[in-house]
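Running this now, will post back.
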Amino acid sequence: MTEQQIHFPIIFHFHQPVDQKGFIYEDVYQQSYMPLIDNIFHFKEIKFTLHFSGNLLEWFLENKPDFIDRIKVMAKRGQIEIIGGGYYEPIFAIIPYRDRIAQMKKLSDLIKKEFGLDVKGAWLSERVWEPNYPSFLHDAGLKYVIVDDNHFRSTGITEKETFYSYITEDEGKTLRVFSINEYLRYMAPWKPTYMSIEYLKNAADEKGDRCVVFISDAEKMGAWATTHQICYVEGHGHEEGDNGKPFIPAFFDQIINNNWIKSVTLSEYMEKYPARSLIYLPTASYDKMEEYALPTKERKAFTKIRDNLRWDPEKQDEYLFLKGGFWRYYLVKYPESNNMHKKMLHVRDKLVRVENNLDKVVGQESRNKANKLIKDAWTEIYKSQCNDCYWHGLFGGVYLQFLRFSVYTHLINSEIIIDNLNTKFLSLENKYISVTPLDFNKDSRMDIIIESDLLNIYINPSDGGTIFEIDYKPKSYNLLNTLTRWPEAYHDDEDIDKIDKDKIMVDRFKRNMLRVRFYHNDDTIKAIEADQYREYGSFVDGEFIVIKNEKNGKSAVIELEQKGSVIIPGSNESYPCSIVKKINIGENQIKIIIKSKFEKIPEKEDLVQKIITNLKLGIDLPFFFNGDPNKFQWESNQLPLLNESKNDLIKPFQYTGSHFKAQDLTYNLNLEYSIKSETKAATELIEILKFPIVAYAFTDEGYKTIYQGINVIPQFKLRKELEIEIEINIY
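Update: finished.
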């Protein structure tokens, strides 16, 4: 009788986001990367497949030469295969074809250079798959790809049928596909090793051509929660079958001791066995990702349905076809993600235009000199495509403000290089300003993009006539890298009573600048901070019309108007009102004039008076600082004696005044607001509210409050006609 056997490829995925904090690199290295590679190195008889994102591999090369040397030894003795992917871990679905190929080639070239290995397989960031992937992966020179078994479910393929490889194609270009096993992914390292071995035993057969693919984040093997203890110190107890031996060596021992388990790389398996059949996979990611991507309301319903079906043996037929959302919807769910993505596309379009213009007007010698700058500009764009901050699931993702800041920094760096290319090689002035009407957000509504050598100002007329990006180019710093406190499904978790519910604040409107609010005199700073006041005006997110759009020398003027209304307190009736916003952009200064005017209706003067008596007008002036919060400072020239508040920018505060200045000492950046009303007496009555924008997010470390910026709201007593002037200086 032929002995049953199973092929068992083991894959570990090593990744950290671009610009991850240095101490996290080191901590994860000590907790996970180093002990994991040490164990792999020790178990010479077992084959492994490894994946490293390019930026992490760079960190190893620069900081851990012994670690790299061990990988080189394993590569030389044929123990490991290294697979490729996007150098900076992009989601391929949302980057252009050229960038997909360039990112993959960049990583494959580095692996070949450092380890002498040809890259044959592809890792997909977050296992995001779309049906057109086979053609570009084939064009990048790759032979196979690893996807989740979730991808196979809705095609009708059962769990046992995933124990083989398949082949797929796009445009006639073929690619082998391997399925990651869900059961093993959830078992290791949380459960004792015998459970994984039993699963493999049940999957083995006499024909011997089956393949169960195990993959894990390397970070899970030591850096998550208690996994360092489990994997390298004490393992699972005697009663659990591993006798206290650490999980990783115990697991590897099991593979060696059970000779029916055939250790193999994916390339070796592919050379030995043909694909089981042709297959076409739908757009998919792993099951949790498809849950996370759903709109919040629908996610709540989906989670209940999934939990009811998943572990019920009698409902597996229904579970087989259960599909959640798909990755691209994050660009709708989180407008801040969409802003970063569309900024990336906008900047790369500018770079492509520069490349094309250089081809047309400069000679080969100049083009050769420009190529280094062009390469640097593309690298900055590729770095901005790192996926981690474009989505949110169990990990902080888009809520991690320093990762959003990283995206903007790299894109602004690229813009600065583009400016240099234009100046040096295309004879354009090094001091300039441009005004471009553009559907920047791709929502069928026109935005206004103002760009200069010092500032970028992005205006959205259709969302309350607000400013949604301010880039200060000398510091490569987006001052509007704020995040709206969006409602999340987990805000309704049953164990939410374990936390302080007052910390959960949700916004109705995106945290842009110049949002005009009408609220009652009785509304407190707490109600306004929590966005739990009644909004009386139509201007807060209504559509403004552009009535002036011009530039003069190095300045530009945009004028916006909405003829809207304000609700009369104590009734549901509205009274006509118009607001005009005039935005004047200079070198490092923005001057804003906001005029509100109630329509004259003689027989309704008492209604206007009721509005003026009971309501206030507030203007959002949010901003974001990225440095060390202990090095944030603020001051007002109206509060010379208030020393205790100077170093506590994030603490809520309210005062009467017309001046506000904040400093990010980490970056030596200053932001100053000067506010005036029509008369000196009116200016002296301006109330200024200051409070943090703090999101309450569920992460792998549990519930956390995460700072997302500061909102400053000057509020004004209403008049029939009110004129406000705000001067913003950045230096």
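The mean pLDDT is 94. More later if anyone needs it.
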